[in-house]
Amino acid sequence: MEKRKVFDDLLVRIDQKAREIDDMDEFYGEVVKILADNVPYYNWTGFYFMKDGELVIGPYIGRPTEHLKIKVGQGVCGRAVAEKNTIIVDDVTKEDNYLACSLETKSEIVVPIWVNGDIIGEIDIDSDDLAAFDEEDKRFLEKVAEIISRKLKK
User: pTM score, two decimals?
Assistant: First the structure.
C-alpha cells in the first residue's frame, strides 16, 4: 500500500481517538500504539514533554532507553526544541550531539508539538534503517502534532 494512503488512514484514526479519549496519557499511549503498529520502520515511537525547562520521557513503544530526561540543545530531541523545528537525521553515527538509545538505531525524526506559540513536547521516532524518514514522514508527523495541539487547546 502506498505510504501516503497509509498515513492518511492513520491520521483519520488518530483524529478519531483525539475526539473519543479525554485522558491525555491514554490518548498519547494510543497515538504511540497506532504509529508503532502500522509503520514497520518506526522502531522506537514515543513522546517527550517539556517540564521544568527540560524534556521528560512520556509514553513510548520500543527498546528501553536510559534517556528519561534531556536538556534543551542536547541530542536530536533537545536540538529540535532549541532550533524550534522538525529534525530528520539520516545517519545518527554522523551526529556529533547524538544521544544513543540503542545500537540498532540508524536514523531519527523529531517533531515539536506547539501549543499557543510554545513547544510543550515532541514526537520522537527512531528507525533501525538508514535514511528511513522523508518529507512524507515529516508532513505526516507534523499533522499528528497538530492534532495533539488542537486537543490540548480545548
Answer: 0.93
